[in-house]
Structures are given as structure tokens and as C-alpha cells.
Amino acid sequence: MNTLFRFWSHFLRDHFNRGMYTEFQTLAREDATSGYRYGLECLFRFYSYGLEAKFRPDLFTDFQTHTVADTAAGELYGLEKFWAYLHYRKDKNRRPEVDALVCAELRDALGKFKCVDDFRKARGGGAATGRRQDGPANHPGPASWKAASSAEFPPLKG
Length: 158
Prior knowledge:
Layout: H1 2-14, H2 18-33, H3 38-53, H4 57-72, H5 77-88, H6 95-99, H7 104-110, H8 116-122
Helix pairs in contact: 1-3, 2-3, 3-4, 3-5, 4-5
InterPro entries: DM15
Region (Disordered): 124-158
GO molecular function: RNA cap binding
């Protein structure tokens, strides 16, 4: 799934497809409720970089909705990506228009953060991305799976 999430986060920026986007959102949220945040993090990156390339009001609204939910769940990753989008985007001429669309709840939450390091400090000095160790290496799969030892594979004849 990680490969698919990563693909969607890049592909949809230039080739937006509503059905694919809906599936991306749905699966990312489902995985996040099970403790696997990679899909949701890819979704936040899609919003941050995709909206910078081409602003879409409907996606901006979704970005806010997901960010509010992520923040309410005690996470900072979405809020950090939202802050970065607002702070670093290149379309400075649209800044007042876009800034006016930010909901009051996010405006209040963002008021506590003046720079990227503020997010790190809020996480207690953890990694700058706020990522948990929930990747595939820490979820090896069913207990019936086991690592193959070299004794199980005879040497190749050749």
C-alpha cells in the first residue's frame, strides 16, 4: 500500500482524477484509524505540494478538514504540512485570498507555531516529520510468516 499511496500523492498533482482521489482519501483514513499513518502523510503531502502547483478550492477545503481531524486526534503532522503550505507557497499574489479561506479552528491552532522548529518542540524534540515507527519493518505480517534462514535455501548449482 505504501507504494500506491506514494504514487497517488505524486500522480494526482498533475493528473487529477476524482475517483482515484476519493479512493486515496478513503484508504488513507482507514489505515490511519488502524495506526498506519503513511497513507495519511502522503495525502497531506499531496495537498501541500499539489495546491501549490494548482490551487483548487475543493481540495483546500478537504485539506483543512483532514488537518482539523488530525489535530483533534493529537497529531501534528497535518498541521505542520498545512502551516508549510501557507508559509512556503510560491503564489504570493494569492496569499490574501487563500489566507481568508483558513477556518478559525486552524487559524487558532497555527497561532502557536511561528517556524518549523516549533513543531519539533511541540512533539517533545522528536523527529522533524513527526513520523511514528509504524512502517512495514515494524509490522512484519502474520505470525505464520518467518524469516527464511540460509539453511532453508540450498546453494544454486551452476
